[in-house]
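Technical annex, item 7. During the second reporting period the consortium partners agreed on a shared format for inverse folding records so that results from different sites could be compared directly. Each record opens with the tokenized structure and is followed by the designed sequence. A conforming record, contributed by the partner at site C, is shown below for reference.
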């Protein structure tokens, strides 16, 4: 059975507070993207040691390093090289924290519908060596702002790379926010496309508007078919983490959820929204067959 995780910085930049909320809502793993207003790749060794002890003191585990690796310009060789250093640094941070999964991307896409697959693969050539040296896995996240934005993009790029240490971080909300994902349901179509390579799952929801945008919404209010996704993950024996990436603010709380979840809207920033979403996820998981 899969486990529940959460991005700590979507709850609070105060790691102690974020971990406290996670413990209250049944979260087992934390995803480290930014702590104390510091992006993960810029954390000092001392900060990493502090994170290690805080997480352990709360009985949690670090389930993923939410690095920005690959969010750079494909045509800028110096940027790409710098991101290889980011990958190395995040690998070292992950290993210190007992985590062998580092999240990454496949370059800013600028809305291009035609993907420069061969050039992308060439830019990724150093990656397998880094992953093998560090003994880690790179979780490639589908991200609408990057060339790899949908499940089918992910499938194509993974097959092109052919690297056993590069797997998929499945983000259904990002899939529906990519123009190439429009009309292709996240379930069963998207899920089935990449399920064999899913190593991590990001949990957030999104819903289309009449103006053609697809903003993030509270869990269960969108088109990502989360109950079906969770059931399939359970049925297929997925044992990794499903990690909440809140991406909504408390003021977006829908009245339809008030009767069941309004009491969770406490705390500052996105803490209340995170509490609501975690409570919804917990209820959805409890209802699985």
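Designed sequence (site C submission):
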């Amino acid at each position: 059975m899969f486990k529940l995780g959460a991005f700590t910085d979507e709850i609070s930049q105060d790691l102690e507070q974020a971990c406290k909320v996670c413990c209250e809502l049944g979260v087992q793993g934390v995803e480290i993207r930014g702590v104390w207003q510091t992006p993960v790749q810029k954390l000092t060794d001392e900060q990493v040691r502090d994170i290690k002890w805080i997480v352990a003191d709360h009985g949690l585990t670090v389930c993923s390093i939410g690095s920005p690796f690959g969010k750079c310009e494909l045509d800028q060789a110096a940027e790409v090289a710098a991101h290889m250093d980011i990958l190395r640094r995040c690998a070292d941070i992950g290993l210190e924290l007992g985590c062998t999964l580092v999240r990454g991307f496949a370059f800013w896409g600028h809305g291009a519908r035609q993907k420069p697959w061969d050039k992308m693969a060439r830019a990724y050539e150093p990656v397998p060596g880094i992953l093998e040296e560090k003994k880690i896995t790179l979780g490639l996240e589908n991200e609408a702002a990057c060339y790899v934005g949908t499940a089918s993009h992910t499938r194509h790029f993974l097959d092109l790379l052919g690297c056993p240490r590069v797997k998929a971080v499945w983000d259904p909300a990002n899939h529906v926010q990519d123009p190439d994902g429009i009309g292709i349901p996240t379930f069963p179509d998207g899920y089935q496309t990449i399920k064999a390579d899913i190593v991590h799952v990001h949990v957030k929801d999104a819903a289309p508007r009449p103006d053609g945008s697809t903003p993030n919404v509270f869990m269960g209010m969108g088109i990502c078919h989360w109950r079906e996704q969770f059931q399939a993950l359970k049925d297929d024996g997925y044992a990794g983490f499903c990690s909440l990436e809140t991406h909504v603010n408390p003021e977006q709380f829908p009245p339809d959820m008030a009767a069941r979840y309004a009491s969770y809207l406490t705390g500052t920033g996105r803490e209340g929204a995170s509490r609501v979403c975690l409570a919804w996820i917990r209820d959805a998981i409890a209802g699985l067959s």
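The chain has one domain: 3-286. DSSP finds eleven helices and twelve strands in the chain. All partners now use this format for quarterly exchanges.
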